[in-house]
Every structure is written in structure tokens, then in C-alpha cells.
Amino acid sequence: MQATYARWLDVATRVGFVISLAAFLVYVSGVAEPFVPLEQLPRLWSLSAAQYAAATGSPTGWGWLGMLGKADYLNLAAVALFGIVTLACYARIVPLLFAEGERLQAFIALAQVLVLAAAAAGFFTGGR
Amino acid sequence: MEVAAATPWWVWPIALAAVGFLIGVVAVLAGIGGGVLFVPIVGSFFPFHLDFVRGAGLLFALAGTLAAGPQLLRSGMASLRLVMPLGLAGSICSVAGAIVGLNMAADLLQTLLGVLVIAIAVVIWRTRSSEGGIVDPDSLARLLKLEGKFLDPAAGTRIDWKTHRTLWGFVAFGAIGFLGGVFGLGAGFANVPALNLLMAAPLKVAVGSSALIISIINSSAAWVYIHRGAVLPLLVVPAILGVMLGSRLGARLLATVPAHVVRWLVIAAMLAAGTRALLRGTGLWI
């Protein structure tokens, strides 16, 4: 089970790094147009996240998924892949743990999958 | 801030990559997670709002620990069986911490960050390690089978280990996860003593498992920051690339640089960054 987790972690992390680097090069090279021009960022990144979103009209929640044609949101999607790696690895070992008769560990892993999936789905983003 | 706003945008990613590189070198040499250095240093000396610094800090620590995870698991230095229940407690609390952190006023957050970072520097200064040993596991540890074995290549011996004080372990990792979510820190500085001194895991297992726990805790908190628009890729990717290269150099220097020199360097850097955050948060030095 630990070896399987390590293998999935290894592959997923390598893929994440390659995609992040490629998306970043697209972003800073100007190959694709960003939603917020790079030149404007130094005047915007001293604002809070809420003020930044209001000033630029940037989406929150999963709204950015509809803007993958913009270089900055393509890059955000690539970075967000790192947030999915652990979820994918845990989802892979849940059936293995059940098959090995490790029911308590399997339920813990399943609970972790649910917490990560709920966080990724945006269930915990309420507030300001 | 006027000067910072007038500086060309491309200067900042280069500066972040350089800082990430230096943190990568020092973090490996000092045996701490780089995330605990990133937020106080970048939050105190760069022009970015603390929301974006904490979002970047979480992903910075996440990427580093994800990269280290496979080797730690294969060598047996990280135990998934030990990590799973503690990581679950930490990740639930980290989500709560991230929500609290994103709803706090920046000045208050900066002040608390300063206090916390100075406290962490003192903890690093005072902490001693324990090689663990055979302890009598409590009933919860037995139920969760929090035990294992690993081959220590340095000593050439096989070490069988068990843990105890499991309930306190859950409390500790809940608190660590909460603080990590609020401040966007990796929490290796606290994970290792909690696993080693509190639960009696051998030091190498504590260090290895700590990295894996950070990857789990930060995964859930990172999503809160992503959904709230507190992640700017222009800050995240250069820092990640810098720390990856710096970590490689740090690993090479490990055999030649005296550990106590690096340890004092880290403590000095954290005291400076913590003091700066405190002064900035209280309005004494903007």
C-alpha cells in the first residue's frame, strides 16, 4: 500500500511540475494573453485577495475554470494540480486497504478523500 | 510601496526565485521545512499582500513536500500508517485555520505572524531530539497500528518502533494544522517534535513523516486560498522552482557545512523576519 502511494505520488508530482513550468513559460513569455496584464500586477498585489478580485473583476470559487484561455488562469490551473495530488493518491489506496482487510485505515483514508474533495469543491470557502 | 509599485513586474519573480533558492539551501541544511521561512521573509520584505504570500507559502511548502514524499516512503523514513490519522486531524483543522486567516485584518495577522515566528525561532533554538525507543503503546495506538520498522543506512541497523500518547498527538496535529492554515506555513518545526518527543517516533521517522503530513495538511488549506482568489501564480511558480534548485544544492552541501552554523543562521533570519512582521503589523515600521 505504501509502495503504491509512493509510486502515484512520484508520477503525479512530476507531471504537476512539468505542467506548471510549461504554463508559467506561456504566461510570462506573452504567448497567450493574461486576464490581468503583468504590467498592472505591481499596483494590484498589495491589495487583499478580496480587494484584488473586486478591482480586477477576477472570479472566485471555481469561476476561474471558465477562463483557462487566459494565461494567468491557465497557470493557476496548473498550480492547482498540486492540490489534487494527495487526493488522487489517497483515492488509489482506499480499495487496496479494504482488499487487505485494513478496514479502520481504509475508513480513515476515505474520510481524508472526502475532506480533500470537499475542500477542492469549495465547500469551505465561506466568509468575507 | 510607491517604489515597489514602480519597479518592473519581472524583477519580483526573479527575486522570489532567488529567495526560494536560498531558503531551499538553508532549509535542507537546517533540517526544517522551507515553508516556515517563506511566509515571514516574503511577507516582511516584499510588497505583496499577506493573503497572496500565505497562499504562495502553502503551495511552496506543498510542492516541496510532495517532491520529497516518494523517496521518504520508499526508504521507510515516512510511515503512511502513522501519517494517515494525524494528517486527517491536521487537514480538517487547517481548513478552519485558512478560513479564519482569510477573514482576519491584515495588521492583526501580521502582528500575530511576528509573534509566532519569534516563538518558533525560540522553539528551534530550545528543541532537542530524542532517538525514541521502545515505548508501551496506548490502546488507540494499538487500534491504529501506529508502529513500523525501517532500516537506518547510517547506523546499519533495523529499528522497530511504536508510538504512544496518541490522543495528545491528535490534539497537537489539530493545533498545528490550524496554525498552518491561518498563516500559510509548513509546520515541520512543530511536526517533528510532536512525533518525536511527544509520540516517541524515532527522529528519522518523525522527520520523514512530517514532510508527508505537511503535504496532506497543506493540500486542503491550499484549496481555500485558491477558491478565495489568494493565489497569484506569478508568485508561486518562481518560488517553487527556486526552492527545488536550492534544495538540491543544500543536499550536496550537507556533508561539508557545520549544522550549528546553519541552525543559528535560521534562528537569526527568523528573529529578523518576525521582528519586521511585528513592527509592520503594529504600524511602527511600515
If you had to describe this structure to a student in words, what would you say it looks like?
The complex is a heterodimer of chains A (128) and B (286). Chain A contains six helices and no strands. By secondary structure, chain A is mainly α. Chain A is elongated, with a radius of gyration of 18 Å. Chain B has twelve helices and two strands, in the order H-H-H-H-H-H-H-E-E-H-H-H-H-H. In chain B, helix 8 packs antiparallel against helix 9. Chains A and B meet through helix 1, helix 2, helix 3, helix 4 and helix 5 of A and helix 1, helix 4, helix 5, helix 10 and helix 11 of B.
Query: What does the main sheet of chain A amount to?
Result: none
Give the mean pLDDT of chain A. 92
For the largest interface in this structure, which chains are involved and how many residues does each contribute?
Answer: A-B, 64 and 68 residues
Sheet-strand content of chain B, in percent, reads under 5%
- Rounded to the nearest angstrom, the radius of gyration of chain B is 18 Å
In terms of quaternary structure, what is this? Answer: heterodimer
Question: How many helical stretches of chain A?
Answer: 6
Strand proportion of chain A, as a percent range, falls in: under 5%
**What is the C-alpha radius of gyration of chain A, as a whole number of Å?**
18 Å
Strand segment tally of chain A: 0
Chain-wise SSE layout:
The complex is a heterodimer of chains A (128) and B (286).
Chain A: H1 2-29, H2 41-44, H3 49-56, H4 71-80, H5 82-99, H6 103-121
Chain B: H1 2-6, H2 11-30, H3 35-45, H4 50-75, H5 80-102, H6 106-126, H7 139-144, E1 147-152, E2 157-162, H8 166-183, H9 188-198, H10 203-227, H11 233-253, H12 259-281
Antiparallel strand pairs in B: 1-2
